[in-house]
Amino acid sequence: MPDRTLESTPARRRSVGEKLRADMYLTRLDWHLEAVLPGKARRATVKELRQSLVSDPRDMSSSLRDLGSPKALAEQYADDAHRRPLWSIGVIAAGAALLVYWTVFLSYVFGMLAAVESLDSNEAHATFLTIEVTAYSTAEAIGISWTSDWTWLIVPTVIATLAFLLGARAWRATTPAAQAR
Known about the structure:
Largest sheet: 3 strands, antiparallel
Oligomer: single chain
Shape: elongated
Order of helices and strands: HHHHHEEEHH
Number of strands: 3
Strand content: 5-15%
Number of helices: 7
Distance between the termini: 57 Å
């Protein structure tokens, strides 16, 4: 009987769960690599690792366990101590901040509407972060409105921008090593 080596062993057929686990691992690795490698090198590294995982004859749990945490593996790929901004994390942070802002704002506005309904009042006016909010309830209609020139656009824009800059750690782009590149 011939001796089988790893090179001659055909690739295992992966289950959906194993594929999902590998994709999640590679996504987390990609996020961590964003801080240490430029885009082209990052994509090539993830592609190479994906092919390596597909061709590994062991089960996915063993393969991923041997690789270690995505953060530790990304640190091994770092060519220098310079850290890059995490733009994709910044986009996620900005989206999450906007979601929280609009949830709080709409909760406030619908709370005003509920108060108008329960107090049998026709109308209520209030201010939320410099935005004038009106809730009204009459026999013919109920509604909410907000006005304040450009403020209703500026407030969420400022919130999203700050969240983006903090989430991306944009100050990394202004380090001397980044300017030298």
